[in-house]
Amino acid sequence: MITKLIWPKCRLMDNKNAFWVACSDDEVISQIIPLLDGNKERQIETIKLNRGPNNLEENPDELGYNNFFLISADRTNIISYSWYMPYAGQWNASNPFRKIDMEVISNLNELEKLESKIILI
Q1: In sequence order, what are the residues at sequence separation of 6 or more whose Cβ sits closer than 8 angstroms to the Cβ of residue 20?
Q2: Segment 69-90, tens digit of pLDDT
Q3: Could you tell me the pTM of the whole model?
Q4: Are 81 and 68 in contact (CB under 8 A)?
Q5: Could you count the other beta carbons within 10 Å of the beta carbon of residue 109?
Q6: Which end of the chain has fewer CB atoms within 10 angstroms, the N or the C?
Q7: Average pLDDT across the chain, whole number
Q8: How many C-beta atoms surround the C-beta of residue 1 within 10 A?
């Protein structure tokens, strides 16, 4: 899994800091699905519908990531989105995402550690 963006005090997640996380299919199965609550079948269908190519070819090593999520640092909120969500024109000049150095994480627990390293203004 990788993350390159943070949404400080995300209004969609009770003002918690949230990360934009890209996952492979295997990572969705092992890391995301076990954390889902509520109607898992519906959420899995949404994940399947949102799955798509990573068209941001800045780094060819990132092309295997086809699933994208907004995840609160404490992992209590997980929302599946299409790959273009953080770059959508809907934000205009008010894009809430902030770029961070790309981090490769092996477990979602690492988001809390990452959050503590980042100085948020």
Answers
A1: 3, 4, 5, 6, 7, 68, 69, 70, 85, 86, 97
A2: 999 999 999 999 988 887 767 7
A3: 0.88
A4: yes
A5: 11
A6: C
A7: 88
A8: 23
| Residue 36 backbone phi and psi in degrees, to 5 | -70, 145
Q: Are 57 and 46 in contact (CB under 8 A)?
A: no
Kindly state the tokens that stand for 26: 């295997």
Confidence of residue 62 (pLDDT cuts 50, 70, 90): low
Residue 74 has a pLDDT of: 96
What separation in angstroms does the CA of 4 have from each of 8, 49, 104? 13, 23, 9
In angstroms, rounded to a whole number, what is the distance separating the alpha carbons of residues 105 and 16?
Answer: 19
Q: Give the closest residue to 102 by CA, choosing from 63, 51, 50, 59.
A: 59
Nearest to residue 23, comparing CAs of 49, 45, 52?
52
